[in-house]
Request: fold
Amino acid sequence: MILICCFARLTGVKVVLDLFDSVELKLSGNHTLKAILLKYASRMAKNSANVIIVTDSMRYELLDERYKLKGVIIPNYPSLNDLPDIKEISAQSSPKKVNGKVKIFLGGTLYRSRGLNTVMRALDMTPNLILHCAGWIYDNTAKELIEHPQVIYHGVVDQKETNKICSKCLVNLALYEPSNLNNIYASPNKVYDSLCIGQYVLLNEETELSKWISKSPLVKTMAYDNAAFIANIEGVCQSKISVPRILRYRSLFVWEKFESVLLNAHKVRPR
Reply:
């Protein structure tokens, strides 16, 4: 990253910085030498960038004032091409069970601070939950999770397959340990994936996102370590979401509405 910054300064090449997961936010409160050096590298990248992409207005407000003029918001929305057909969704029964057991979903990068211990405690509380998960195994906690007898691990699959698996479960879990600003200001695509497939999503209430998106009937919130809430999730997510509401979400929260913003950030003409 530092070499790219130096090259940009020397050549005048345009640099677009995509802050999908901010190093500075991840290391908030960490004052080790390694953290200080990484934060310095992050600031160098911001100084050298012509455009800084963030994923929502909350993360934009976290930018220093000197960087806001460079800031562009491009949300973490799904592409319509990756969403299941609306007819397939409307045909599914609710709640979503198999052999009397409720199916729940967890996807993305799987590691401890994504609520894995809370989820495993919930599974241990009741035999009536089956967890389907897909994504990258990042640490030993994730390895332990996929070995749990109530877990079906689908491996690393593309976004379209992820949404297909998720749409057949009752709820999508989006849990972020509130241990740093990157997690507190989490901006996950899985929330908008869920809305656009008529899927319940469970967020922990310590996240900033949960404070406004919980107005949607599809979004449920709980404390990060509340395993009992997950164990009893069927009682919380009972109503069937109408097709018109799903279509409404698909008119608002899709990538196609922001593709031109990304192209403009790079000054690329659409084909």
The domain at 80-252 is CATH 3.40.50.2000 (Rossmann fold). Residues 111 and 161 are 21 Å apart (CA to CA).
